[in-house]
Design brief:
Layout (H helix, E strand, L loop, with lengths): L3 E11 L5 H11 L3 E6 L5 E8 H13 L5 E10 L9 E7 L1
Parallel strand pairs: 2-5
Antiparallel strand pairs: 1-3, 1-4, 2-3
Length: 97
Amino acid sequence: MSPQKRIHLIISGRVQGVGFRNAVYLKARKLDLKGWVRNLADGRVEIVAEGQEENIQPFISWVARGPKAAVVEKVETRPERYQKVIYEKFYKKSGFF
């Protein structure tokens, strides 16, 4: 089992209204990641994800492409200190923050 890792991502581009948040949610669940995804009021999407290091990099690579309807222009990646199960699963937060 690989070490646990936590990342914080901010995604810019055409990433709202195109199923991006739901696709992130499904991909994170498939990779057994925990955390959340939410839309930001400025049109970007924010993600916090925790899980095995071997699953984090494929997740970041996938987010950089996004689902077919999305156009990802920029992914800001900030590693964070692993918090050890703050989240019991991956969540889609609704509304704008």
